[in-house]
């Protein structure tokens, strides 16, 4: 290499390396932000560190980032060159969302383009279990002892009220109103609280749990509705052990309501969706069911 090129590279290198340090420090400040939930922090760390590794390979600093940089990174994720196999569109969207959040925190919103970078995701129909399968899943939770009773009450309420996992474990004692047959749900997603009906089966099992199981589990003052064997509020991992895919019960709640004649606007309110377009995916499920009915019933099908 000519001497003048080596000298220019030697002059440039310390600035680039200091940019790397600044990028890593900025990432730590972002990941230490109290605004991030612990689960979000863990997920973001992997995606942000992967992005910083990519930046370092390009000898780019945080201040060098512009829309072209993000387009290049999105293209590389889409090509799957940095991982084994191709990434799904949903995975690419998640990684880019983490990077955008990091850059907004570090550089300010004005420096982060709103341009769509991720590939369009195909429309996925919810995988909702049939009523008989839900009944079988709930019946399998029955058993002796306070923990068995708690488990049945918890999963029954998730299905009966269409709750997200975090909403279910976040319920307090005062959130269940047996007199009005209502459940007050505090949603961490979009901050939209809602009130949903308390079904007869759920009311039975929750009341049974509160009367015959929770007093044995309680350790001191704790307002949590569902508590662990040590008297602490349950976390979502417990629910996932009981129902490996608890969100399928939420899909079942919506699908079974639709099959029973409920309209989409009502289901939107019960699910806590801010937009009807989110709820409209269930209309495709219903259309599929109607086609089966038509094919088996109509003489001209």
Quick recap:
This protein is mainly alpha-helical and 301 residues long. It has helices at 3-31, 38-57, 67-79, 89-107, 131-139, 146-161, 165-169, 200-212, 214-217, 236-242, 246-259, 264-271, 276-279, 281-297; strands spanning 176-177, 182-185, 194-197.
Mind explaining what this structure looks like?
With 301 residues, the protein is mainly alpha-helical. The protein is built from 14 helices and three strands. The chain has helices at 3-31, 38-57, 67-79, 89-107, 131-139, 146-161, 165-169, 200-212, 214-217, 236-242, 246-259, 264-271, 276-279, 281-297; strands at residues 176-177, 182-185, 194-197. Strand 1 (176-177) and strand 2 form a beta hairpin. Helix 1 (3-31) packs antiparallel against helix 2 (38-57), helix 6 (146-161) runs antiparallel to helix 8 and helix 6 packs across helix 11 (246-259). The radius of gyration is 25 Å and the shape is globular. The N and C termini lie far apart (77 Å).
Largest sheet properties: 3 strands, antiparallel
Low-confidence stretches: 1-18
Decide which structural class fits the backbone: mainly alpha
Gap between N and C termini, in Å? Answer: 77 Å
The neighbouring-strand order within the major sheet is 1-2-3
Query: How helix-rich are the residues, as a percent range?
Result: 55-70%
What series of H and E elements makes up the topology?
Answer: HHHHHHHEEEHHHHHHH
- The fraction of residues assigned to DSSP E strands is under 5%
Give me the oligomer status.
single chain
Q: Count the DSSP helices.
A: 14
What is the global morphology? globular
Give the strand tally.
3
Mean pLDDT: 79
**Radius of gyration over C-alpha positions, nearest whole angstrom:** 25 Å
């Amino acid at each position: 290499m000519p001497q003048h090129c080596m000298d220019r590279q030697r002059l440039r290198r310390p600035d680039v390396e200091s940019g790397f340090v600044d990028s890593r420090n900025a990432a730590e400040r972002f990941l230490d932000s109290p605004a991030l939930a612990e689960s979000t922090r863990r997920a973001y760390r992997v995606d942000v560190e992967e992005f910083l590794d990519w930046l370092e390979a390009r000898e780019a600093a945080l201040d060098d980032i512009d829309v072209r940089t993000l387009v290049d990174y999105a293209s590389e994720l889409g090509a799957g060159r940095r991982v084994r196999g191709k990434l799904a569109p949903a995975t690419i969207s998640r990684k880019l969302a983490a990077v955008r959040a990091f850059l907004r925190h570090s550089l300010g919103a004005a420096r982060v383009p709103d341009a769509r970078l991720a590939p369009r995701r195909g429309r996925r129909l919810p995988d909702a279990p049939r009523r008989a399968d839900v009944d079988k899943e709930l019946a399998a939770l029955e058993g002796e002892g306070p923990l068995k009773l708690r488990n049945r009450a918890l999963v029954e309420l998730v299905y009966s009220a269409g709750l997200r996992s975090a909403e279910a474990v976040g319920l307090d004692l005062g959130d269940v109103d047996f007199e009005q047959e209502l459940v007050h749900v505090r949603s961490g997603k979009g901050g939209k609280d809602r009130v949903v009906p308390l079904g007869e089966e759920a009311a039975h099992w929750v009341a049974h749990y509160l009367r015959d199981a929770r007093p044995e589990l309680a350790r001191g003052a704790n307002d949590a509705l569902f508590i662990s064997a040590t008297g602490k509020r349950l976390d979502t991992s417990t629910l996932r052990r009981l129902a490996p895919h608890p969100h399928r019960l939420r899909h079942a709640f919506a699908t079974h309501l639709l099959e029973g004649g409920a309209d989409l606007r009502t289901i939107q309110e019960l699910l806590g969706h801010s937009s009807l377009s989110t709820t409209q995916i269930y209309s495709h499920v219903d259309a599929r069911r109607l086609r089966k009915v038509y094919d088996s019933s109509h003489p001209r099908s």
